[in-house]
Amino acid sequence: MAIAPITGMLRKRFWLDISTGLGLGLSAGAAFWYGYELPFRARQEAFYLKLEQQKLAAAQQ
């Protein structure tokens, strides 16, 4: 009642595993970058631009 050894599993599904992993990883990375990081940076830049404009307006008065 011995269990048969698992052989050749990596070789048989190697390209499927690699392409699936890369595809999911790149998709998750793109979703994070375009869904979270870029909007966050845009809000941050808008905040600092507004702050700088307020400083310049206060300095001119």
UniProtKB/TrEMBL annotation:
Compartments reported by the entry: Mitochondrion inner membrane
GO BP: any one term: mitochondrial electron transport, cytochrome c to oxygen
Keywords from the named record: Membrane, Mitochondrion, Mitochondrion inner membrane, Transmembrane, Transmembrane helix
Cellular component per GO, a single term: mitochondrial inner membrane
Molecular function (Gene Ontology), one example: cytochrome-c oxidase activity
Domain of life according to the entry: Eukaryota
Alphabetized CDD domains for the sequence: CcO_VIIa_fungal
Transmembrane segments: 14-36
Protein name (record): Cytochrome c oxidase polypeptide VIIA
Organism encoding this protein: Mycena rosella
